[in-house]
Amino acid sequence: MTKLEKAHRTKDLRDYLLSDKVTEDSAEFIPMQGVITLLETTMPTIRKRIELGELKEKTFFLKQPERKTFLGVEAGGVKVLLKVKMQRREIIRKAVFEAAKNQTQITYTDLLNLADMRWDSPPDRLFCSRVLNELSNESYDDTIDSGIGIMISAVVISRNEHMPTQSFFEHAVKLTLMHEIGDRESQLEFWHEQLALVYSHFGS
Q: What is the pTM of this model?
């Protein structure tokens, strides 16, 4: 399966779970790998959610042509977690655009707190990083045609370092806005340039 096919299949599953066809108490079987991809998580995290009762494990048996066992979870719990994930994504989005509009900055910790997540939780940090990268992808796509290329996530900083974390600069390299991550001085220079662009473009 290609990445494009996988993306389409994930979207189809997401749309189905969020539709009226699936209730929050649905016991329909959802394959484990589909859940991991959909919730952008890991097997250990899924196991933890099962232990906490947030998800209910379910087994599917296929008898022909040969007996196979497939592990998964019930659809209702996945729908609940997916809705929470989407709500958190929207909270992060609003907070980032609000900071850009007000020409100010927000820390990763405060951003996660707003979304009822924790900085000391690796899955929460990873989720936040993915959302910030998505937002920067959007702002980059919206501005690159004018020859600028803006990363709106420049308004999100570390409470201790008072600048974005390495993931911000790694994503800048992926977007070809930086040739390399470079040293702290070059990172500060790039970040200040991006911050000025964000304030100029999105500020009120």
A: 0.85
